[in-house]
Amino acid sequence: MQITELSLANQRVLLRVDFNVPMDEDGFITDDSRIQAALPTITYLIEQQAKIILVSHLGRPKKDKMGKFDKLKFSLGAVAAHLSELVASSVLFADDCLGAEVEEIISELQAGEILLLENVRFYPEEEAGDKVFAEKLAQLADIYINDAFGAAHREHASTCTVADFFDNQHKAFGFLMKKEVESGKKLLQQPKNQFVAIIGGAKVSDKILLLRSLLEKVETIVIGGAMAFTFIKAQGGNVGKSLVEDDKIELALSLLSEAKSLGVRILLPVDALAADSFDNDSPFELCDSANINNERMGLDIGQQSQDLFAAAIEDAKTIFWNGPMGVFEFENFAQGTAAIAEAVVRATQNGAFSLVGGGDSVAALQQMGKADEVSFISTGGGAMLELIENGNLVGVAAIGN
Ligand code: AMP
Known about the structure:
- By secondary structure, the chain is of the alpha/beta class.
- It has two domains: 175 residues, Phosphoglycerate kinase, N-terminal domain (Rossmann fold, 3-Layer(aba) Sandwich); 201 residues, Rossmann fold.
- It is 37% helix and 16% strand.
- The longest helix is centred in the first third of the chain and has 15 residues.
- The chain is elongated and about 70 Å long.
- The structure holds adenosine monophosphate (AMP).
């Protein structure tokens, strides 16, 4: 079912959202984009006069020695207060997600009103995907809607198991989830021809599965960031003190040879900005990426690499970007990532479909004020990577459309 096909008036709707927002030590929300991203679905449910029960996780709460959770750090109470400023409806908060008190609040909930339940991860059954727990959550509502794309790769009770307790006429995706899944699937349906993937960031080990699956789908893979140095070292280059995963050298070589046999072009940086230390103010020099002084570390790609990568990107019809080209958080080493962002924007202006997924590349685009200039920015880094790796997600399959 589509959300727009459901009869929602006066129905109790359990809406799984991803309100896993960053907070500072005083419990102040430092970035509310995940709350903003859920607003279209919440607003629609208000307009449709549903009784809205929001369920979410926040962080990874662990019990202390006394067997208690740090409620201050992991409570969704501050999120409820923030949400009430963003919606035209009253927002109630329950300091549990199950139990008699919750049931009583729900029984008195008015059409169009919102109840935010406390962090669902205060129950270990959530992450275990526990059936009994999921059934209790399901009993709170008549309809289940999943809009938590950022958690759609987790086989948890409120993202997956709970859906089993609703038939197809009583469950659907929210608008965010639908847009994310459609964009990811659109990317996967593009022809291999002129499909360029740009992969950067710190570690090869985090991106092995992604790189492997991309070999089947793309014509070119551009590799930047620290992870490029493992590949450069594998090919006999001298990378100095750059971040390298020595135990992944063999793997890097096997990925390179697999790429060769599949006819996939791999582009690695040819030059680098090499610094004395991991510091924005460190002295640095431009050098050959395979010939870095033993006392220096590569923190960004150089001009030649930027030109080489930009030429490949600008020829593309389909682009997937995950991970920065250098330490973009340091102004002196942000130029490589900025140049790639500009190339992706130019390709998009020329008609390419560009999808940017993964926390840091999204943060880099936002920092450069270019977030609106690509085709799609994913709000769920890990989920989008898994969608691209496997072609589907457990949380998507659970809804079944
Ligand atoms: P990831 O989470 O794997 O996408 O990695 C992102 C992080 O990689 C960012 O914080 C970057 O600062 C870091 N990074 C990118 N390039 C380098 C580099 N050459 N040396 C060290 N860290 C880097």
